[in-house]
Structure formats: structure tokens, C-alpha cells
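Chapter summary example: a protein plus manganese (II) ion.
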Amino acid sequence: MKKEMTEAQKLADALLAKPVHAFDKTLGGAAGAMEFCEGYKEFLDAGKTEREAVTKSVELLAKAGYKKFDKSKKYKAGDKLYLVNREKAIIAATIGKKTAEHGVRLSIAHIDSPRLDLKPNPLYESDEMAFFKTHYYGGIRKYQWVTIPLSMHGVVVKSNGEKVQIRIGEDAGDPVFCITDLLPHLSQEQNKRPLNEGIKGEELNILIGSFPFDAPDMKERVKLETMRLINSKYGFTEHDFTRAEIEFVPAFKAADVGFDASIVGAYGQDDRVCAYTALMAEIDTKAPQYTSVCVLTDKEETGSDGNTGLASDYLFHFLEDLAEMQKANYRDMLAASTCLSADVNAAFDPTFPDVFERNNASYLNHGVVVTKYTGSRGKGGTSDASAEFMGEITNLFDKEKIVWQVGELGKVDIGGGGTIAMFVANRNIDVVDVGVPVLSMHSPFELTGKLDVYNTYLAFKAFAKG
Ligand code: MN
Ligand code: MN
């Protein structure tokens, strides 16, 4: 009997896949992951919008010796360069030993996150309180964005062309802003609304002031006083809101979650968790075989359209420039290139198990997730990575002792989502989605496991090294 069990066990070990907890297998152990996430939390706090994430990335790249890309220059293997697209997207690269017709290694994450944007004419007064009207950006559950402190970020272009930077609600002593909700005593009728209408789009109005301008006979003097204060600090007028990009995001900072501090809690981890890990991997890649290209792109949350999104040509024009510089055929270069679409997946949530299929869900602290396809309704709107490319990537991860897992975004026909993968695959490049599992994705306070964050960094590094 005992012998039979041993043989059965041997057979099981040889034939059956076993889930691995990243705690038991992560290179450098939990300590390495904890240390890595200290820099990650700083990155999150510094870059709460795509523009701020670009600024922070340029700072990190410049410190690591990256120089602004210059088409007229001759680059040699090991040279590090970066290119900023309209302050909202960035490409960083390390020139490889092999020339461009052998292809490049792309890691592409996005740095836009769901948030509340101001409307073009946002300021109004109602019942002696001043408010901003908003239009939400990306997929949010609106009820999650009320009664939390919000900070204001963005740029305003004044009539003289001068650009004003705004960041208020992040530093000690700054005011914050807030959307109100009903008290339970008076919410009988609101409680009957379905959850997705609990708070409606036109109810996402941000309270920004309540003191009137000191002129008792004037109308709308709270609005005037609010605009006076904005003008005295930033020097622009109400009209200038029409030429602005102002985003409201949760004001709280990244924090450790749990008694063991094993989890990062923060706004905007989709997808700055993959942005930071891919960027650090790019920075730490010295003398790669193939040119490594890390892209932090914009507009993913609204479908990647627009000239800072991956559906545009900005990345492909850069690749074409690289090919020309090395006198390589651009089409050969694309066909030989490979890409990790660096994006998050939904971590299994034991409180809401019904939307997940346990055998194909990703789990917190089970390592970096390899997502073969995303999309919805029968794999619509996705690039489905080939068996061959899945083999190439997962064999690499196994060889480099990276803890990885598979992940599918929820049960079939429950919902779905997309990434930038298809916009790269459509150019004749092999792509697969790789990233971090997230709990409470798209909420104001998303959660990631530190072991997953670290293994994702190791995965991008192994890939970029070639
Ligand atoms: Mn994402
Ligand atoms: Mn997203």
C-alpha cells in the first residue's frame, strides 16, 4: 500500500501541474520583494497622472544615464536613450548587440488610470457652495469615488500660451476636495437604485469651496471667491478651463496593507505597477542581445485611441527610425520583434468567488501572470498569443526561476477587458500579456501582492536581457 502511494506520488509529480506560492520560490525571497516595493510606492506617489509618471520616469532614466533620442546621432550597443511623446507617453531603449533586422524586445505598460476629468466648463455655484463638474475617464464604479479625499492634478494653458502645472492635495498643508453622498437617514429612495446607478455620472460633482466673496449684494459670490483664490494661486481665469487637462484622483498615499505588510495599497496600480517594473527592468538591462524598448503609454483605459495611445503610430515611427539608423529593413525588424504587453489581471477574490473560474484565475502572491488572451464574448477584441510564443516566454521564465501563473479575466461571458496587446500584434509582432494580479482593480485603492510585483520585475528583466 505504502509503495503504491509513493509511485502514485511520483507519477503525479511527473504529470500534474502544481500551483506554486511565490513565498516559497521567489529569488531573493520576500525580503527582496519588500525592498523593491519601497521604490515602487515612491513612484506611485510621485506619478498620479500620466504626465507626472512621465516626469518621474525621465528623472529615473536621466539618473541612469539615458539621453534624449537624437535621430542624427550614431548609436552603439549599450547606449541608452529615451523619447517623450507630448508629455504623456515615453519610450526608453537600450541599443542591443544585434542590429535592428533581428528585432527588438518590447515591454509596454500604460500610465493612464481611471479618474475624474474636469469638464471644459466645470465651475458652478449651487446653494452657496462652489463645485466642479466632471466627466469620468476609464471604467470606474462611480459609487466608490464619493466621500473620499481627492487631489487635483493637471495643466492649464493661459490665453498668452503659458502653461500652468497644477498639483494640489498631495502635500502636507494642502486642501483636498470631495464628492458628497446622502446620509443613510435620507437615502431610502437612492438605496433602491441598482449599484451601477447608486451614484450617477452627473452626480460626480466635486465640492471646492463655500466662503463668499466679501460683497453681500452680489450674486454667485462663492463662485467668484473660489475663482479669485484659484487665480491668485495659478493666475488663470474661468475661461482658461476650456484649454486645460485637469484630473482628480484619490489624495491618499501608497501604503503597506496587512499585518505582514505583504500587500501594496494605492491608487493607480493599473497599470503603473507594470510601468514601474518594466521601467526598472529596462534601466537595469545592460548590454542586451536585442535592443530593449520599454514604452509607457497613455489612453489604454479609453481604448488606446489618440496620439499618445498605442493605436497611434508614435511607437512604430520610433521603431522605423531605429531601423533606418541601422540600415535595417523595417518590416523584417517588426516580424522578428517580440513584445510583453505589460498589464494587470484580476486577482481571485475569495469574497466574490462567483465571477472567477478557479482553475484559470490568477492569485495574489502566486507570481507574475501570463495572460494568453483577454477580450470578451468568445475572445472578441484581443490578440491570442500563439502556443509557440507562450512556449518561448514561459520556458524563459522557468529557466530564470521566475514564479509565474496563468490568468484569465473572470468566467467566460461574465465580462472582460482589453490591453494594448492587439495594437502591437496587428503590426506582425508576437505579443503576450504579462503582469501583476490586482484586487479591487479600478477602485480608488487597488491592492497588489509584493511577491507578484517583484516577480514581474524579474520577468521583464529576463525578457529584456534577451
Ligand atoms: Mn491596465
Ligand atoms: Mn485598466
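Key point: The chain has a mean pLDDT of 96.
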